[in-house]
Prior knowledge:
There is one protein chain. The protein is α/β, with parallel strands linked by helices. The protein folds into three domains: 183 residues, 3-Layer(aba) Sandwich (Rossmann fold), CATH 3.40.50; 204 residues, ANL, N-terminal domain (Rossmann fold); 124 residues, GMP Synthetase, Chain A, domain 3. The chain is 31% helix and 23% strand. The strands form eight sheets. A five-stranded mixed β-sheet has the order 11-12-13-14-17. Strands 2-1-10-9 form a four-stranded mixed β-sheet, sandwiched between helices. A hairpin with a 5-residue loop joins β1 and β2. The longest helix has 18 residues.
Amino acid sequence: MSQADVQTQMPLPTLRGITLRHGDFDTLCEALDYAADGETGFNYFDGKAQLKSTLSYAELRAQAMDMAKRLVPFAEKNARIGIAAVSTPDFAVMFFACQYAGLVAAPVPLPVTLGGRSSYERQLQRMADTGDFHALLTPESMEPIMRSALNDQAIPVMSFQAVKDLPKGEELRPFGKDDLCYIQYSSGSSSSPKGIIGTQSSVCANCHGITKHGMKIQEMDRATSWLPLYHDMGLIGFMIAPLVSQMTVDFIDPQDFTRRPITWLQLISDNKGTLSYSPTFGYELCVRRWRDDRELDLSSWRVAGIGGDMVRPEPLTAFQDLFGGMGFGEGSFTPSYGLAETTLAATFAPHGQGLLKHTIDMARYTRTSEAVEASDVTREEDRRTFVACGKVLPDHEIEIRDFDDNVLEQKMVGRVCLRGPSVSPGYFRNTQATEAAFSKDGWLDTGDAGYWLEDQLVVTGRFKDLILWHGRNIWPQDIEWAAQAAAPHRGGRACAFAIGGVGDEKDIMLLLECRTRDQKVLDEIYTAVTAAIRLEVGVPVRLMLVPKSTMIITSSGKLSRARVKAKFLDGGIIDLQAKENLRVVTESSELG
């Protein structure tokens, strides 16, 4: 299609032209077969909100079936096919070609996400090895790095065009309702990534729950997304779930969002988008990059979802304050909770509720694991506000348990355990990890800590990140958030972790990205942050100011503390101040 054709082409419409169905299908092929009778599909935009291409569900079905007839002779049923998860029509076609060919698609991340070519190649090697890939499909532009990564493995790397050139057979081999669907890799692993198995039944069950009960999809709903398609929130939430509810999606590439985040909001405004999701940092980035250089109408945006990471109320409040005058409704915020092991979603906040905040006494919390409301006598530095992530989806169960598997009552913090039809059967060819996370009776230990606030779940952190210090439970995000709040304009991401000995012999390390190298300004930041840590957290913390882009971020936008810590211990992090200036933030005599 020529550039002139693209410029005259219209985006695919919101109206389906067929009766809305909320994902009540047994397989993804059955869902696409139905959606293809309508008028909707995927629109792909550039970083300036200009339409690049469209892919209707009818076109997707026809092209996917054509590719499937080429893949059936190429690979045996249930063979794993790695696919570079680019935000283009080719990825959607190849993913659904695998569905019609009975092949297990394994979306893989792109080189730009993992902080360096060598790091990316190691990750890709591990994915290909643990998934036992039959082949890896990629755009031609990415072939060299893919081939370099898999140079020592007998895995063919094929461009999307090369697949289109394969001999075409006559047979389709679509998955049935009891078959597999895909493998999705855990995004934060610092060792071998775990391949989370998605089955046709678990994926369809979760998409039904999302579209009918979580988002409550309506006739005039339209989705907008910048989320990467190798992560569950992008793949399930904004490619598969819209398709099984026959909804149009307007896509922009994650890199374009990073460079021009306001394009995301521009698309919602231009096309009357109603549903869109982001981790908290996406909303924060929009506030930071806003230049008041255009008019937006965000009044159509009824579900502004928050997922993929801890819900932080302060950046979201700032977003509401800035964009509320442009039609964004406070009740549009929809916090949710989920993880790839339960396909995607487990809980959703009720529509119109917005941010249900719960401020607790952290001093009491660290001593007793009780989430007791802060009172008039609670010190300001001991107050911490969490946001409720909503109610569990129908047909699913959540229990908060202690480490002896006792079920805990309201406002008692423990392990978040989950069971239901959306839960994965486990990790691909990793019995040890599967047995550690999944019980024989179907319960998943999520690894998250949380509590009940009446009938809504509140998530407080990851147990593996918890720092034990002098009998206290220190959550690293408390340290990180205090640091970021103390340097809101000059600081970037922060990362806290324990190093050294055991128990009280540990040191707590805090790395804070800075957008300057001016030593005078760095000293000012150091002074402000150390004072804030002393006041709000009250533990000895070693502060290092580091260059921006130092942190390692997972495919979902989460901070990977384990990998940042490993990078620090390997000497791979630059100290912007002289090493002799690495000081103890607080002394024991100042502890609260």
